Amino acid sequence: MFTSMTGNDEAIADILFRIFNDNCVQADVSRIEDTDYACITNHDVLVVVSYTYEDGEVPRPAYDFYEWLEHEKLSSLTFGVCGSGDTFYEDFCTAVDNFDSRLENTGAIRGADPVKVELYPEAEDEQRLGNFVLSILNTKKGHDENQNV
């Protein structure tokens, strides 16, 4: 799920989609504001991609989802969060941190440390995003194996 104002976060979502598919994992991509949140429980993995708005806030198109998460229990979900920002601003990518904390508070399993991208994703960011996806997949696999013991 992503939200994007400048296209940077949509580009990140597209890269993640490609990487998941390259790893033989079927992925769906949707804008946060167009997603039926209840459908999240039908998935094993959730990746949230978000920019930070104004003074370090979760952007308006993603705010309802952010609020929805406050009351959810998603202990069977493995998650990761990433997003773009501009280090010129003091509140660089704080929405990424906010979503990461909120998802952790749902009981979901953090599959990877958050990834913060400076503006538009470059080649080195694609490498970090690849590692991010692999970490999520490995965490999910490890969790599934532990559940079957």
TrEMBL record:
Gene3D superfamilies: 3.40.50.360
Name of the protein described by the UniProt record: Flavodoxin/nitric oxide synthase
Pfam families: Flavodoxin_1
PANTHER family hit by this protein: FLAVODOXIN 1, FLAVODOXIN 2
Its biological purpose: Low-potential electron donor to a number of redox enzymes.
PROSITE patterns: FLAVODOXIN_LIKE
Taxon lineage: Bacteria, Bacillati, Actinomycetota, Actinomycetes, Bifidobacteriales
Family (UniProt): Belongs to the flavodoxin family.
UniProt entry keywords in alphabetical sequence: Electron transport, Flavoprotein, FMN, Transport
Coiled-coil region: none
InterPro entries per UniProt: Flavodoxin (IPR050619), Flavodoxin/NO_synth (IPR008254), Flavoprotein-like_sf (IPR029039)
Flavoprotein as UniProt keyword: yes
SUPFAM superfamilies noted in UniProt: Flavoproteins
Sample GO molecular function, one term: FMN binding
Domain Flavodoxin-like, chain residue ranges per copy: 1-137
Domain of life of the source: Bacteria
Entry cofactors: FMN
